[in-house]
Write a structure and sequence with these properties.
The protein is mainly α and about 250 residues long. The protein has one domain. It has twelve helices and no strands. Helix 2 runs parallel beside helix 6 and helix 3 runs antiparallel to helix 6. The radius of gyration is 20 Å and the shape is elongated.
Length: about 250
């Protein structure tokens, strides 16, 4: 446990020194500000740029539009930026030789995997929380209605899917020792989940549902209980991937 905490501090310090933490926080802060503003200004911009003589009637924007922007931007740009920022989680240290030196000095390999995942998860959690709180504050100010519900659970679902995706990325990084290869594997997993999500019988258990059905929760079209099977599958899958990462890393020749 001591080794894990020491290595975790080293990982977090590296995120700070390489500006990865700053980049993540800035990106998610900008997204948090943009979400309600985009929802507020989109109808006016559309009306302004419509051809002369053409008019459309758009519904008055509400808090639902702001949260729709939040989940669209976070599941697209936010998750992509997160995966890109941490994609060199193993390969960068192996190429520099720093990880090999630490391992030869007695650092347990399982501590490396635990600390790397914990640092990635901390980076994702802090960034998502910042964007969520900024979006929530601006949404309450701009759209003081009571149309949005289940915000905490829908946000938790998105966070959990991100945590699962980071577990996939770490497993892929240990498997191929290459940043590009780990990105390809992670992308392939998302594509497979998207294909599986077409089948209604699988949606209930698909981790992707946690990132795809957020607005149904916010609009109160479904209840949080309907996504608990997906939550359980996602937690078990993430834990299995981390366990497999530890076992593979223990046997891997560096």
């Amino acid at each position: 446990m001591k080794h894990c905490i020491v290595f975790l501090k080293k990982e977090l310090l590296e995120y700070q020194r390489t500006y990865k933490l700053l980049v993540m926080l800035l990106v998610f802060l900008i997204l948090g500000i943009m979400n309600p503003l985009t929802a507020k200004l989109t109808p006016d911009l559309l009306a302004k740029f419509m051809p002369e003589g053409v008019s459309i009637t758009l519904p008055k924007p509400s808090s639902l539009d702001s949260w729709a922007q939040f989940y669209k931007n976070t599941t697209q740009m936010g998750l992509i930026v997160t995966v890109l920022v941490v994609s060199g989680v193993v390969s960068s240290e192996l190429s520099r030789g720093t990880l090999i030196i630490l391992l030869t000095k007695g650092l347990p390999r399982k501590a490396v995997i635990a600390a790397k995942y914990a640092s990635m998860l901390a980076l994702w959690s802090a960034s998502l929380l910042l964007s969520f709180l900024v979006t929530w504050a601006y949404t309450v100010y701009i759209f003081p209605d009571d149309r949005s519900g289940n915000l905490l659970f829908s946000g938790f679902g998105l966070w959990l899917f991100g945590a699962f995706l980071l577990a996939v990325l770490l497993f892929a990084a240990v498997l191929v020792k290459n940043a590009y290869g780990s990105l390809l594997i992670t992308g392939a997993v998302v594509v497979i989940l998207a294909i599986l999500n077409i089948a209604p019988a699988i949606q209930k258990y698909n981790p992707l549902s946690l990132a795809a059905r957020n607005m149904e929760l916010v609009m109160r079209n479904i209840q949080p209980a309907s996504l608990w099977p997906a939550v359980i599958v996602t937690v078990v899958a993430a834990a299995a991937l981390l366990g497999a990462s530890v076992m593979m890393f223990q046997k891997k020749q560096l």
